[in-house]
Amino acid sequence: MLEPLIEIKNYKAQTPFPTDIKTVLRLVIQLKQCTVPSPPLSGDPERIFFAILDQKGFQLPTISAVFHFCHPGSFPIVDRNVEAACEILKDAHASDFGGLKVPKLPASTTSAINKLEKYRAFMAFIDHVVQLQRNQYGGGPDYRFVDKALVVLGAGKK
What we know:
By secondary structure, the chain is mainly alpha-helical.
């Protein structure tokens, strides 16, 4: 019943919608039910990351959103706005970011391992932003709080 709608959407869109919805839903349920290890992108989450990436229509920004909404305290959302915000922060406050490089989104044609490493780089950078926020202003900012701020900051640079 959904196949004609999916085909129409995929014909019009640059990023195709997954055609194997049952597999995607099964993987999202597995992710939601799994315990997040330390480091967060290891064990079951790493396996699920690769399995979702194998599905048509999924690249790092969408996968990061799935991971975030399943485990908001463990995984940030990354997209072009967040990438731009990281660059803005590094340029404006280079001394606060020491040896951290500005994370970059991977090309859609790069390897799955490369995409996982890019997500890990974003996580390290965003973890540092969260820590700087805590040190500067106190409180307990989380990924959701920082995600919103980064999206707004980066939106102006696109």
